């Protein structure tokens, strides 16, 4: 059955691909955040495991192609591996349920190793599934067309690529929104089970849709895998060359010609063409090493930025959606506008030149990322080392105060109801404080533990001068754009404080609460109860990634007066500054990735496309392994320096590739095929039984 001139079966295949890509990219969009915030791994381990997973996803396609072509056929391979894939996604969703091991009901899992084990099993199954079906689905779609449907087949591949990007785009918008919801039985936490559960459900739908079209598919029998034949041919040539290494044997034009004793000329010529292209692939993994850091390092970079977008809820990881949106826009723009313009300028923009430009642009994108990182680093707070103490002063009285740090370590004046930033002192040198406010003076000796932040609350009470030390238990900037809030009671009576749905409990006069975590970018209601009087106030918007001490100064009927003292300043570099690096990297992808596959196909015989597809996917896998090696070996403490290192490495590789490309001569596989066809025809005229002999020889191989 057909629809609009297309086989009806391909609509099932396109829906299947859309759901599968939604499932994969949706899970990948929040994966590095799951590692960091749920499994509590640091940035480096999260990045390492993320890239190991991606590398695995691009190594398994070779396995999938061999299984499909030599053993099960494409249909059975897709079905069986999709089942493995769906189980993997389901295991992943289960691994992220914190109530699974949360016996103490405090909102964090008590037995992290259980969650780690489950998620690793899930990821291995997903890598087997997604990688195994990758080479089969598009080829299976192509099999559905008749010989004379070339136009429809090429349009099918365009729609197929569009469905991949549509699935990727929707999932990178939706999954982070799902993750940002709060869910849980005992306590409300980020909703990872939902963020992983929806992709698992879509994978199940993808499987059901694919099986539903079963009766309509044309199912080709497995023909044997060309990769196996090519490998055998290369292996035999090397072995044979090694056997005949003495000088008495004449040299042959190409080392692959040593396979001619066993393999026909056509296969050898085809293998030569493939190896020529695969040799050019050697520098390409470096591009993927940079490209795939969008999902790891760049996502982590975004968590230290100001995510206050007007349209979307903040901290939806919008940057990940920038890439698929730009791809959908840029591919037609580059094809219809940019390339024709370059042609008009009489520039011969060959495929290999396009790939070189792609590498250069990716290198540039990492320079942009480094510049953004330098700006972010300027906004990060400095914490004391083990030998230092940091002191901040809050003046809670109506008189100005002056504090001298003895012996002669400087002094500071603080206005009434004002506060200072943190000052750093060598702990061993600090001996005493001289505090003056109004007409009162007080001298205090100091013994502070090193490596901590402290707040000194000063208040001239008219009767006496109160000096109180508060320990600030904040050792790092709040992550993911959250805010830390504590309250300080500046009233003569005890009060009970609630902010949003979080209770801070009862606070005695001049005492502080613990810090509590709140989502960034929000305004929450503050409720203070004093002697059965309830006072209400709506907090100001506290930005992202900040910490504040909120001082309660007045609570009477309908009036709650507070002052905000900033302990850690909010993120000030806006997430929009990441858009240039994403834009440059997407331009790089358009000229690199699309051209790369096109070039490979144009330079290799039709029956060798699977080998080149495998080689291309292998470059992605190796690229992700390079990230592990470089990030592990570089030991750079500064993130911007790591970005510059990657940019420099790619630039060096880009120059090497440009030299290799300069010496490459383009071939036309169809011409070479036609020559062989002509030769065979001539031989058949001479020996009519040649085909039967050839068929027998092939079956023995």
Describe the structure in your own words.
GO terms for molecular function: oligopeptide transmembrane transporter activity; symporter activity. Belongs to the major facilitator superfamily. Proton-dependent oligopeptide transporter (POT/PTR) (TC 2.A.17) family. Interacts (via extracellular domain region) with trypsin. With 701 residues, the protein is α+β, with helices and mostly antiparallel strands. The protein has three domains: 1-222, MFS general substrate transporter like domains (Growth Hormone, Chain: A); 264-379 and 574-667, MFS general substrate transporter like domains (Growth Hormone, Chain: A, Up-down Bundle), CATH 1.20.1250; 388-568, Domain of unknown function DUF5300 (Immunoglobulin-like, Sandwich), CATH 2.60.40.2890. 53% of the residues lie in helices and 16% in strands. The chain is built from 17 helices and 20 strands. The protein has helices at 9-38, 43-72, 74-95, 112-143, 150-180, 192-212, 226-243, 265-281, 285-291, 297-302, 318-344, 351-379, 579-602, 609-634, 639-662, 669-686, 690-700; strands spanning 2-3, 6-7, 182-183, 189-190, 388-395, 401-406, 411-414, 423-426, 432-437, 440-445, 452-460, 465-472, 483-489, 495-499, 502-507, 516-518, 525-530, 533-538, 547-556, 559-568. Strands 8-5-11-12 form a four-stranded mixed beta sheet, with no helix packed on it. Strands 7-6-9-10 form a four-stranded antiparallel beta sheet, with no helix packed on it. Strands 16-13-19-20 form a four-stranded mixed beta sheet, with no helix packed on it. Strand 3 (182-183) and strand 4 form a beta hairpin. Helix 12 (351-379) packs antiparallel against helix 13. It is elongated, with a radius of gyration of 33 Å. 40% of the residues are buried.
């Amino acid at each position: 059955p057909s629809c609009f001139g297309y086989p009806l079966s391909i609509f099932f295949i396109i829906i299947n691909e859309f759901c599968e890509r939604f499932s994969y990219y949706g899970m990948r969009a929040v994966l590095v955040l799951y590692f960091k915030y749920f499994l509590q791994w640091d940035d480096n381990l999260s990045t390492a495991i993320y890239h190991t997973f991606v590398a695995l996803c691009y190594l398994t396609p070779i396995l999938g192609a061999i299984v499909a072509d030599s053993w099960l056929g494409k249909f059975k391979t897709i079905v069986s591996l999709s089942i493995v894939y769906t189980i993997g996604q389901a295991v992943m969703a289960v691994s992220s349920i914190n109530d699974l091991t949360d016996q103490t009901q405090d909102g964090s899992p008590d037995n992290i190793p259980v969650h780690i084990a489950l998620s690793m099993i899930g990821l291995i199954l997903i890598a087997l599934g997604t990688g195994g079906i990758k080479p089969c689905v598009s080829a299976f779609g192509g099999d559905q067309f008749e010989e004379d449907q070339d136009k429809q087949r090429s349009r099918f591949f365009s729609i197929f690529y569009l469905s991949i990007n549509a699935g990727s785009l929707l999932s990178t918008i939706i999954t982070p929104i799902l993750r940002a919801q709060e869910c849980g039985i005992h306590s409300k936490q980020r909703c990872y089970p939902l963020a992983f559960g929806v992709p698992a459900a879509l994978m199940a739908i993808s499987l059901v849709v694919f099986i539903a079209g079963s009766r309509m598919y044309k199912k080709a029998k497995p023909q044997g895998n060309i990769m196996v034949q090519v490998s055998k041919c290369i292996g035999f040539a090397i072995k044979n060359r090694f056997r005949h290494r003495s000088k008495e044997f004449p040299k042959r034009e190409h080392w692959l010609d040593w396979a001619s004793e066993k393999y026909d000329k056509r296969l050898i010529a085809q293998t030569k063409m493939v190896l020529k292209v695969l040799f050019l692939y050697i520098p390409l993994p470096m591009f993927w090493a940079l490209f795939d850091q969008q999902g790891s390092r760049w996502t982590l970079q975004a968590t230290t930025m100001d995510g206050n977008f007007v349209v979307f809820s903040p901290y939806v990881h919008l940057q990940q959606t920038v890439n698929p949106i730009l791809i959908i826009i840029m591919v037609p723009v580059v094809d219809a506008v940019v390339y024709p313009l370059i042609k008009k300028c009489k520039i011969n923009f060959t495929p290999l030149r396009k790939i070189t430009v792609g590498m250069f642009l990716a290198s540039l994108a990492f320079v942009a990322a480094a510049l953004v990182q330098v700006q972010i680093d300027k906004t990060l707070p400095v914490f004391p080392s083990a030998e230092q103490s940091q002191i901040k002063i809050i003046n809670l009285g109506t008189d100005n105060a002056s504090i001298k740090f003895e012996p002669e370590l400087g002094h500071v004046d603080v206005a009434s109801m004002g506060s200072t930033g943190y000052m750093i002192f060598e702990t061993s040198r600090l001996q005493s404080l001289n505090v003056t406010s109004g007409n009162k003076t007080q001298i205090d000796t100091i013994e502070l533990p090193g490596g901590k932040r402290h707040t000194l609350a000063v208040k001239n009470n008219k009767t006496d001068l109160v000096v109180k030390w508060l320990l600030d238990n904040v050792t790092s900037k709040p992550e993911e754009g959250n805010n830390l809030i504590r309250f300080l009671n500046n009233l003569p009576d005890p009060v009970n404080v609630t902010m949003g749905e979080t209770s801070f409990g009862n606070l005695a006069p001049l005492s502080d609460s613990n810090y509590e975590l709140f989502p960034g970018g929000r305004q929450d209601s503050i409720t203070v109860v004093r002697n059965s009087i309830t006072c209400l106030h709506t907090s100001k918007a506290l930005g992202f990634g900040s910490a504040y001490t909120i001082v309660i100064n007045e609570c009477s009927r309908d009036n709650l007066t507070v002052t905000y003292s900033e302990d850690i300043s909010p993120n000030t570099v806006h997430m929009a500054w990441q858009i240039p690096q994403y834009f440059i990297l997407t331009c790089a992808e358009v000229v690199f990735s699309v051209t790369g596959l096109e070039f490979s196909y144009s330079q290799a015989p039709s029956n060798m496309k699977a080998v080149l597809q495998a080689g291309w996917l292998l470059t992605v896998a190796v690229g992700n392994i390079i990230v592990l090696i470089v990030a592990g070996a570089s030991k750079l403490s500064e993130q911007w320096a790591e970005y510059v290192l990657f940019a420099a490495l790619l630039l060096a590789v880009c120059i090497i590739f440009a030299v290799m490309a300069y010496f490459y001569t383009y071939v036309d596989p169809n011409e070479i095929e036609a020559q062989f066809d002509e030769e065979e025809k001539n031989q058949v005229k001479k020996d009519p039984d040649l085909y039967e002999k050839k068929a027998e020889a092939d079956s023995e191989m």
